[in-house]
Description:
- With 852 residues, the protein is mainly β.
- It has three domains: 725 residues, Maltoporin, Chain A; 54 residues, no CATH class; 33 residues, no CATH class.
- Helix content is 8%, strand content 50%.
- It contains nine helices and 40 strands.
- The chain starts with a strand and ends with a strand.
Amino acid sequence: MRSISFFTTGKVGLLTSVCLVALSATSLAHAQSAAEPEEESDVIIVTATKRETTLQSIPVAVSVTSADTINQAQVRDLNDLQTLVPSLRVNTNQTSSNATFIIRGFGNGANNAGIEPSVAIFIDGVYRSRAAAGIGDLPNVQRVEVLRGPQSTLFGKNASAGVISIITREPKFEYGGSAEVSYGNFNALVAKADITGPIGDIAAGALAFGINKRDGFVRNLAINKKINDRDRYFVRGDLLINPIDELKVRAIVDYDHLNELCCAVANVKDGFTGDYIRAIGGKIASNNRFGDKVYSDIAPINKISNQGASLQIDYDFGLWQFTSISALRQSKNFSDGDIDFTSAALASAYNDFKIDTLTQEFRLASDYDGPLNFLLGGYYFNEKIDQKQGVVYQKDFRAYTNALTGGATSALALIERALGLPVGTTFQKQGTGTSETMGMKNDATSIFGTIDYHLTESLTLTAGFNYTDDIKKARINIVSTDSFSALDLNAFGAGYLTNLLTPLIGPVNANAVAVKVAGVRCPAEQPKGLPICNPFLGLSVLQFQPPFLNIPNAVESGKTHDSKTTYSFRLAWEINDTFNAYASYATGFKASSFNLSRDSRPFAADFIPGNPILNPPPSKIRSAGLALINLNTGTRYAGPEEATVSEIGLKARFPDGAFNLTLFDQKIDGFQSNIFVGTGFQLANAGSQSSKGVELDATYRPITPLTLTFATTYLDPKYDSFKQSAFGDLSGVKPAGIAKLTLNASASYVVTLGNDQSLTFRTDVYYQDKTQILDGLEGSRAAAIPYTNEINTWNGGIIYSLNNGWELTAWGRNLNNDRYLTTIFPSVAQADSVSGYPSQPRTFGVSAKYNW
């Protein structure tokens, strides 16, 4: 695999290309010598114009990974793709569907259904709006393209950080197919097959199906189950109708299903609360990041199904080419599991959502002989999200609070007595907590286009635009059955202190003192004399499921309406047969995203928290009579992202190799930061986040059998402005989770054995330098600074190709067993403890494939 930055001498269709013909591993790994004839595998077919050209013609920073490379590297899904593309990073955390795709340090949307990702995923031109709809195995892949930077004029659906475009093979008008089976450690079994052939004179069809199973590599000692397993299958039908040369119709139907126990959470830091867990009989695999042993009283269930149908129509009018892509899709996702990640039964969370999506794209491209050509397109997106989720207490939570607070003599017991409740009642009922129903409707339309003008034979100027109009309507209904979280500890403390002090100083003075100190937390040791603090405020840490204000309401409409025109300019120069160069400037846009989580709270502009006894200032919500006890502020949604990128690219091709160099300066104003805080998400706009960098890839073929590749990305990321982050003012700080340096290198050596048989030896390495994992913990950036990760993985394989269609492979991924944490978070209801998600260990196996 190699990353490729393309340059243009072609017409507008080259700038809006969404399809490439199959690229062999050899064509991606090295440039052909001048003496060799140019093969079909070294040609790009542009679907908008049906024009062929060489790989040097597209002025877009893009990495292309072929089917052969994916097969040789044993890449099973998009999560593994990052080891082949340095500018791409993929994180999978809370659930199997919780994948975040990051390009050049920009990406978001994990596990919050209200957020469309900044990195858009397309499969055969159809937009997959959430990661859960695109993480399945990769059937019949022809290639995967990773386009870097904002994409608006190339795709109707605006993407502020980049695009991952997967193109599958079309059905063929001759019989053929393949069957493959693979077996590896952890009892990994992958089996898949496909068949293609003609259906009459004008149609061809293809059918593909497969399974992917593996035992878990983490042992849950509490319930004696292995987790982090694989259990997936897919089926896909593809029909191509070509009644006349000018018309081509392609219909695709697909279904995939996942049912896995994912994802294991390791104890990264066992804080002082760990002793209280053990005091009630709970167990923790303390400070054991990569021991692959955990204690959790509930298995982490994940069930995902995706299904859809698409129809693409291409018609060639001669001077114009018309394309229509229509799609209906549905994605269902259910997860349920422990959230304290100990063997004590403290709390669990479930999430059940369904997403229905309708998309329609039209494109009309010209094919004139003159210097000017154009493309004009329209795009419509309609989506409906229905979600049910909740957090519920389990049977041991009361025992845990007793241990924390001191049992029958605690402030908690004192509250219960004052309320006339039997001591031990609070948190006793299993299943209480919050239950939530949420949803969102999204309608978006866009018009986009490009004009391509040849200033000279070697110099081409391109201008493009995209106008997007986006409307979202959200509803959030949260019901809390946690009576303790609904208690007003300020008012309770004031009443308690008033009664306590009245016999000593009289009711008037007692009330004055009580009101004065009602909002003051007590220090570790209470001074002698009159009380100067509220002894109950320390219990507020147990009020993490308070009543929430639902939307829409009289103050908050639950609606956003965004519109924006984005544009791009590009100048491409074919210097000579060896060198091409381009310079470009582009803008991108992503509309507002709603926080569809239990941490959705009113904006500070609409509400000022506080108890009436403390006389808080007036606010819109309080004036409307909507204020709730313990209601706090946060965000309902994050405003739009607006991206800009400047790029300069140089591409060179020599008889024995090639290199591509891209320098870029990319910035997103209003980047939608989505921070997981244990039970929900804090969604906020960073004022501005930028990333300057260099991307370099090179190939060299010193001798005919040997191909060497090298690709690297260097980033200088920064929060230019982020004053209102969950961890204070981060302006001027390097964002966590973004490595400055990533690189991969590969070597492929082919030994010809005669009789059209061969042995291919392939190895590749992936490196990511040390970086801070998370921006902050428990409201503090400093608390997260000690936690870093560094990635060094080595993959390899040997492929024996026979002349009768068989291909035998021995393969290994992460052969050096490099382990790291993908992310961390503050342990739920366990102050001073930290949890995290460990990476996969070494995997290896053998496979046999037959092609006919």
